[in-house]
Amino acid sequence: MASEKNEAATDPNAYRIKTTPDPYDAFKIAIGYRAGNFVFLSGQASIDENGNLVGVGDFDRQVEQTFANIKRALEAAGSSMEKIIKVNIYLTDMSNFPKIIEARGTYFKQPWPADTIVEVGALGLPELEIEIEAIALIEGEIID
Q: Is residue 144 part of a domain?
């Protein structure tokens, strides 16, 4: 097992994260990549496994679906929500900031991931209200 970890840490390749079905393939975007001991996810949004928009006009539902997608992608890469070290959160309306703080308490635990939250004029689809990028560890622990 130790040699497998060492091999992963020195492997110069990046491996595409794949799910079946892959809702991001239609947009010509990779869900993310596993590189060394890290997972780098593309922005995850409120799109279900079949590429359908979820929660149009319902910010809370979009948050739930977005975090479900993050969890699914991380598990496909051999990681988990507990291994997230950094997120970038994009909102179309900063008045939802208090809901994001609440969601962080629901979906993350201490030590909290590093975080950037910004308001943007629009996301990839006009109905989307939130998108989250994430970076996570595969092996190892986050030390507080």
A: no
Residue 114 has phi, psi (to 5 degrees) of -65, 150
Task: Give which of 95, 15, 121, 23 is closest to 66, Cα–Cα.
Answer: 23
- Structural domain range at position 87: 2-137
For residue 62, give the CATH number of its domain: 3.30.1330.40
Asked, for residue 68, whether it belongs to a domain, the answer is yes
The one-letter amino acid at 43 = G
Cis peptide bond upstream of 21, omega within 30: yes
DSSP H helices, the chain, are 2-10, 59-76, 97-107
What are the average pLDDT values for consecutive 10-residue runs of the chain, which has 144 residues?
56 92 88 97 95 96 98 96 98 98 96 97 96 97 92
| Count of structural domains within the chain | 1
Query: CA-CA distance, 73 to 77, in Å (whole number)?
Result: 6
Which pTM does this prediction carry? 0.91
